[in-house]
Amino acid sequence: MVSQVAVRSSEVAMSRARLPVQAATRRAVDCDFGSPVIETIRQQGYVLRVGRLTFHLAREFGFCYGVDDALDLAYEARRRFAGRTIYLTGEIIHNPTVNARLAALGIHQLENIADVTPQDVVVIPAFGLPASDLEQLRNVGCTLVDTTCGSVVHVWKRVERYARDGFTTIIHGKHDHEETTATRSQVLAIPGGRYVVVRDLQETEQLASVITGLQPAATLRDFFARAASPGFNPTRDLGKIGLANQTTMLASESLAIAERLRAAMTVRYGEDETPFRFRSFDTICSATQVRQDAVAELLKRPLDLLVVVGGYNSSNTGHLCEMAAAVCPTYHIATPDCIVSAELIRHKPAFQAQEIESSGWLPPGRLNIGLTSGASTPDRALGDTILRLVQAAGECPPQSWTARQVADFDPVPAG
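Structure tokens predicted for 4-hydroxy-3-methylbut-2-enyl diphosphate reductase:
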């Protein structure tokens, strides 16, 4: 992921300029979110034995470049604009420990744009911001620090092109996710822009049935009212469609959705017409893809269970859990303290919305434990999770696990 970064003030409201990040700022970010435990495991081939536990770490996990960049910019804004009020328009990323840390630094969640003054600083999250909100902030004349991920900006360019060419954008994403909300606004910013949001292959199948004529559009009135642009007319607006993705969706499902929509357009308009009526471009971010690939590779090992660490509202983290749950017992935890003991864990199961408690989750005897984390999860959270697991298994109390002692543990060859 690359990040489109801007600082805008009343003097340079429409210009874009890089906010230089000092080396001291990067060190502060690393100090807050890095982990010597994780660094040690990396150096030892991503596999580490501690007593009866053998940890297998995914080869790709944790912060992506875009998240690193967003945090560098937020920290730099706090350093550079000391004494000024700094707002964040929403969660900078979907991770509770990261957002709590920014709050502790005095970066306040913005409740109402009307509260912003020209003297204030406003940080735009990595997900981006709806076009109307951005315009309001520009009109205020405050300083804007834009951490919108470059992969998200790439999606925006794609949907703008669809709209300008008269195509309705089909967005594979979660309708109420901040990124999808911002993407929808980019479509509507183009005169005549239209969209439909499909969350998964099941919703895509419903849309395809309307395109092919197997189902009248009236039967999906509620779906279109919830998931489509204002005034959407299926009869008029599904003649030319272009697919884009929320960048953190499951890549395999996005490919399946593209194939299903292409097939539906072919049934409706014929093979010769389809290239002129259907467009698709893979906008899944590379960091999301490599983390999914790393989990797929990790699952080839004989694991007794797998722990996924990350915010429950993190789309990319949730998809890692869904992939793993099909293969072995998988526990998606938001924070390390969700591991209460060897008997009890709080976690969010795959494809469920709420956290639950499970008992008897950490069996006795030797265990192979897989570990990964989403692109918005700091290494510290994953390292602390390992400490909690070791403590729960009765192998070593976390307060005694220093960087030197971690290095003394017996590593297991990665093969």
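The two ends are 30 Å apart (CA to CA).
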